[in-house]
Structures are given as C-alpha cells and as structure tokens.
C-alpha cells in the first residue's frame, strides 16, 4: 500500500474506521463498524457548498478549512485521547478527497499510522454493488415458501436458534413484505444501507452449509432485492409450509396485533388495496377494522387477496416449487413453530 493510502481490499488490516462525512451521509449508509466523526456537519457542508457555487473554490476552502480544523480538534480531544501509539485507523469521506485527507494529515502528524481510503465511500459502495451481483450464488439456498400467515419469518428465527444459517431479508429490510408489513417501531433503512447489511450478512455464511431464506417478491416495502439474489432464490430448492386457515388467522392476529391498536393507520393501509379489490370490499374491510374484528378481517384478507396472489406467484416465480417437500401444520403458536422448524431442519439433513 502507498504510504497513508489504503484500498477497500485492505480494510481488515485496520483497528478502526472513521467516517469523516457529514452525519446525513453517514446515516444514509456507511462501512460496517465505522464511527461518525464529521469534519463538516450537515449545516456547515451546505454553507461551504453554497459559497463554492456562488463565490469561488478559494472562498469555500478558506471558510471550510477553519470549520474542518475546529471539528478535527474536537474529535481528537473527545474521541481519541486514549488511543495507543500503535493504533491504526482508516479514514474515509465520499471519494477520498480533502475531508478525509485533512483528518489523516493530523492523525499522522500525531504519530498514528492512519490511512486514507482510496476512492472513499464511493469505492466501498461500488465494491458492494459488484459483489452482490455474484455473491449470493456461492450459497446453497433453501427457500421457505408458504401463504401469508404461515409463520415463515418465525420459522426462520427458530431455524437460526437451532443452529441453521438464516438470511432474514425482512429483518434487514425492517418490513414484513406485504401491504400491511410496515413495522410500527422500525423505519426501513435506505437502499444503500440495506445492501451493505446484506453484503455483510452473506460474507458471514459458510458456503459448505445451506442457507434458509424466505420466499420474497422483488420488493420488501420500498427496498429492492438485488437481481443476483432474487434470481438465485427463484432457481433454488424450496420448502413448502402448508398451514391450516384457522392456524394462520390465529397467527396473524397475534403477529399483527399492533395494527388493531391504530385503526386509522390500518384503514389507510387497507386503502392501498383499492384497484386490486372493489370499493365495496375495501369499505367492508375498513368497517371491520373500526369494529376491531381482526379475525374476520384477516380471514377475508387470506381468502380474497393473499391466497389468490400466492397461488399465482409461486409456480411462476420459483421454478422448483412444484418439487418442494411439504410440511403440514395446524399449530403456529411459538411451540408449534419450534416443532415445525425442527421437522424442516431434520428433513434437510
């Protein structure tokens, strides 16, 4: 490596990653494990950018340098006073320019073997996107299929508890995947952040062991699945959960109990189905929500919306679904799901 410069391939040789970009850039996505030490905060970055456009590059650098020096001094004082002499940090900004370069200059003047990431976050992002085109194909995926309400995500959780390798895409996307799938306490990540988390998760798997993943469409909420992943999922062996209607309704009432606590929100989500269902059905569903009659409401969701979609999509989208081993289930309580996961895992041995 050139002195003071490192590449994306050398990330694992450093003790710490320092993200010198603004807090807004860091929030959108960052290298896993990085700490945010902005040399310009959001407002300062906007100020410098405006001066650059309206006055000159010199005027922007003149005022920006003072801000950068002040912020770096604060980080040195508050964040790094306990670091030993052999500490090796890697600093990055958007494209390996002046923000990270300024930070690295001061760290090296102190005596630390600090390096700047060549190409910055932009190179990291390019690497993630490129890797996700082929990385999923290294793994033996086993796709858990089943109609809505079959407890597929909970089965994945139990498989993980039993020691299986699990790729929980809905957890990474913070969304349950259906029109009603937005979570009440977790906003969805950005697309870039999701893909970074996915990349990190895939790199933690052993290619010699199967990886269980839930059947998904191309989008989970507003998150798009990478084409390399969705294509490999659709060509992989499937496992079919055949749960009874009563068990599914009981499960949905438990698993989506938060929807019943916010009737206006539930009714607004039902409105998203206009155009797919008649106005008469939509109005009836909104009335059932108002009455808190969730068992009847979810039963009609199953009969009129989710099951017809499921029957149309599985054979069309998952080539090996017709050959999938089937696991019948009439109990989707936690104990029933645990037993179901045990049967699925035993059958894969």
From TrEMBL:
What is one process in the GO biological process aspect for this record? tRNA wobble uridine modification
Which PROSITE patterns does this one have?
Answer: RHODANESE_3 (PS50206)
Q: Which organism is it from?
A: Aromatoleum tolulyticum
Q: Which residues form a coiled coil?
A: none
NCBIfam families linked: PRK11784.1-2, PRK11784.1-4, tRNA_sel_U_synt
The organism's place on the tree of life at top rank: Bacteria
- In this chain the Rhodanese domain maps to 17-133
Which UniProt keywords are listed?
A: Selenium
Q: Name one GO molecular function term.
A: tRNA 2-selenouridine synthase activity
Q: What is this protein called?
A: tRNA 2-selenouridine synthase
- Supply the source organism's classification: Bacteria, Pseudomonadati, Pseudomonadota, Betaproteobacteria, Rhodocyclales
